[in-house]
Amino acid sequence: MATLGAGKTASIGIRKQKRADLVAEELKRLITQRNLKPGDKLPQEVKLQETFGVSKGTIREALKSLEVQGLVSVSTGPAGGGTIVEVPLDRTFQLMQNYLFFKDIGIADVYTVRRLLEPELAAGAVPHLTEDDFHALEHTIDLCDPASAKAAAPLDQRQEDLSFHDILAAANPNPMLRFCCELINEMLRQLVVFGNETSAKDHAKFGASTVKFHRQIYDAARARDAERVRELMAAHMEDCTHHVTRMNGRVHGRLVLDSEMPRRSRPLIDEHDHEHDDSDDSDDEA
């Protein structure tokens, strides 16, 4: 029988919740030691009970804890148990954004990081962009261009502005750089707002400038000119900083709700079910 807590035997008087926490930690250790991958199954509940010398309720509580963390998917029944899953990206975004809720984050902080990362992200994506990616990039530009017959509503245009950057992120092979930039994009979607004093004209100017840069970046990427893409993206980020500062954009400190998190692993190409915030005093930003 295995002991709990890396060699520490659980005492008789230990609380059930604490015991479940220890089992959850041991299950994480088991996943690591066995190098389990998404789709692999943990031992059945009965086997886990025997292994750790705990009740069915404790095992289920430990599995539920791992499920909440996004590490396993739990099924019930005689053959019930946990299946390893890849931690959902949207849940990771939510945890990171909720962590930042307790920090003093301003719009200038967000754009300082964006100016540093986005040029490298875009340049690194260039060799890996597929025809589907180019089609998706062109589609987002059309939806954001007021002169296009496909132009979306203003609020949806801001979502598509960010989708352009998501497509580039998805094509970049560096997972750390990709994650950081996608996290910032989600922050812009969920947390950055503008006040009522921001005019429709200001939003239109911002949108037109963004479309112009996106078209130039698209053309340079089509030509597989990574250095030109880097230069254009750097200029685009400087321009975005100027517009957001002028429009008094701010980070709206709040915890992100489950219902607000998009459920997707890669930017959409032609679907139109874009999620957005319908609040009266704010708009999303690209």
Automatic annotation (TrEMBL):
Regions annotated as coiled coil: none
Pfam families according to UniProt: FCD, GntR
UniProt KW Nuclease keyword: no
Lineage top rank: taxon: Bacteria
Alphabetical keyword list: DNA-binding, Transcription, Transcription regulation
Bias type Basic and acidic residues, positions: 255-277
Region described as Disordered: spans on this chain: 255-286
Entry protein name: FadR family transcriptional regulator
Taxonomic source organism: Ralstonia soli
